[in-house]
Amino acid sequence: MADLVVDLHDLWFAEQSCTEMAQAHTQAASTVGGCDAADALDRPAGIGLGSSGFYSDWSYLRDQIVGMLTTNASSLDDSAAAMRICIDTFTSTDADVAQDFKERQAAIPYE
Q1: Which domain does 86 fall in, by range?
Q2: Domain-located, residue 42
Q3: 1 CB neighbour count, 10 Å cutoff
Q4: Chain centre distance of CA 75
Q5: Coil, strand or helix at 65
Q6: Which residue, 2, 64, 74, 106, is most buried by CB atoms nearer than 10 A?
Q7: Please, what are the averages of pLDDT over each run of 10 residues along the chain (111 residues)?
């Protein structure tokens, strides 16, 4: 049982990390998505690349980054949820495991 509790605690740490990383990816996607360089790239059309320069390429790249961050956040949330199900399954079916798991969480908290 001790090995199971250690494994569940490790899984709990991974779940907490995935949740934090998902939140960070969501925040990053929001920050990047809010960036707009259109005004900075406006210029006379005669300079080359038209009056918006390389804005369309820049905005395409921005949108791709936002999409990847959003997908990563979703995948991390899904992984954390799966880990939570595993932890809940073991701790809800064995009171001794649940108690030892809570004690280990208290002794080695996630911070």
Answers
A1: 2-33+53-107
A2: no
A3: 9
A4: 8
A5: helix
A6: 74
A7: 93 97 97 85 70 81 97 98 97 96 95 84
